[in-house]
Specification:
This protein is α+β, with helices and mostly antiparallel strands. Helix 3 crosses helix 4.
């Protein structure tokens, strides 16, 4: 994936051009049609996603708890936790996402501690809200 697609994402703020390129390389850009289920609560977690364009609805136990917009990310809780999706995420209209498989996610976090810290902070906040 082109590093410029991730350049405006707060998660990568302050990274050098080389670091941003290294983070972006394993991401795959995908487009999702309207009302598509990107993640289902309880399913196995296998990827991390960043919203590039569009909006997604987030549901837990069939209750909408939020909306994801460009720059937001999801999938980290399942990858960091018990390996299961903690929420249902569905597109609202056409959505562009950056998708990173779990093995590339682990490498990105190992190679870029600041990204790991930022993801951990958001995950902790999300976990606190869900209790």
């Amino acid at each position: 994936m082109n590093s410029q697609a991730l350049a405006g994402v707060p998660l990568f703020e302050g990274l050098s051009d080389e670091e941003l390129a290294a983070c972006a390389a394993p991401f795959q850009e995908i487009e999702v049609l309207s009302d598509h289920n990107v993640a289902r609560e309880g399913d196995d977690s296998y990827a991390f996603f960043i919203v590039l364009d569009g909006q997604l609805a987030v549901h837990v136990d069939f209750t909408e708890i939020g909306t994801l917009a460009p720059g937001d990310f999801f999938g980290e809780m399942g990858l960091e936790g018990k390996g299961k999706r903690s929420a249902h995420v569905a597109s609202r209209g056409r959505v562009k996402l950056a998708k990173l498989m779990t093995w590339d996610y682990d490498k990105m976090l190992a190679d870029h501690p600041v990204v790991k810290q930022r993801i951990a902070a958001v995950a902790a906040e999300r976990a606190e809200k869900s209790t």
